[in-house]
């Protein structure tokens, strides 16, 4: 069950197609999952909102490029790049489908087993 979009629960929610009516809702995608870092969630959510408000992929690309420039210039909070989910290595079904935090932990352990 994965989706994102505007939900309209009453007639008052309907302002116009592509307008400000409705409430943004997302289920099961990276914008609401807690196993990614906040920077990922924020950028994906903003990209979806650009598309939903009538933008195109060019508008999304401009936004993403602006965000990456901020990241490379160090103008973003490091807190947005911190994984906050506990990693439980050895409990995942497959090494191919590890959550992002577990991938980072695995790579760190290969470099230095004492790192994690």
Give an overview of the whole structure.
With 116 residues, this protein is mainly alpha-helical. The protein is 37% helix and 9% strand. A two-stranded antiparallel ribbon has the order 1-2. The relative contact order is 0.12.
Structure summary, number of beta strands: 2
Q: What is the percent of helical residues? A: 25-40%
**Radius of gyration using CA atoms only:** 18 Å
What does the main sheet amount to? Answer: 2 strands, antiparallel
Order of helices and strands: EEHHH
pLDDT < 50 stretches: none
Tags for this entry?
116 residues; mainly alpha; two-stranded antiparallel ribbon; 3 helices; 37% helix; globular
Task: Summarize the structure in short.
This protein has helices spanning 38-52, 57-72, 100-111; strands spanning 3-7, 23-27.
Task: Break the fold down into its secondary structure elements and pairings.
Elements: E1 3-7, E2 23-27, H1 38-52, H2 57-72, H3 100-111
Antiparallel strand pairs: 1-2
Helix pairs in contact: 1-2
């Amino acid at each position: 069950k994965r989706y994102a979009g505007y939900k309209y629960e009453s007639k008052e929610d309907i302002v116009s197609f592509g307008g400000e009516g409705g409430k943004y809702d997302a289920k099961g995608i990276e914008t609401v999952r807690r196993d990614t870092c906040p920077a990922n969630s924020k950028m994906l959510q903003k990209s979806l909102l650009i598309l939903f408000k009538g933008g195109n992929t060019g508008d999304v690309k401009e936004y993403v490029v602006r965000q990456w420039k901020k990241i490379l210039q160090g103008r973003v909070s490091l807190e947005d790049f911190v994984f906050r989910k506990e990693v439980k290595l050895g409990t995942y079904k497959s090494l191919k489908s590890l959550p992002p935090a577990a991938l980072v932990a695995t790579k760190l352990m290969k470099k230095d087993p004492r790192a994690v």
